[in-house]
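pasting for the record
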Amino acid sequence: MKEVNIESKLYVFKNFEELPNEATLLMQKAIKAREKAYAPYSKFYVGAALLLDNNEIVTSNNQENASYPSGLCAERTAIYYAGSQYPNAKVIRMAITAGSKNKQTTNPIPPCGACRQVIAEYEIKQNTPIEIYFMGEIGKIVKSNSLANLLPLMFDKSVL
């Protein structure tokens, strides 16, 4: 047997004041998107904003449904919209924020597993890493230079 260690490098910013300007702008757009989320069942609101290499910014939020599997997360909504409207554009940076109507979220909330897989697909498709910033409603903000830090053992087309 051989032991294998997997390392991920993340950067933690204490607050907005520490963020680079381009990340601050994108996170502010994600916050505005979060406020428009449709989450009457979970009361968990998520907003996402993407910066594309054509300088377009795509925003989205989660959309729930009484039949839970029919809803869609903010991250996937944004990625799919960008892919359908700007099929040749690359995603440069993504900002994600999540908050609950039941309690204030102060810890950074990363993308769920399904969203990580979708982001991985686009990162592989465009052959360029996607910077990902994520936070709760307030507090620390985490940055990953690539989805690979959040999903180090990716499933991709190479295994098919």
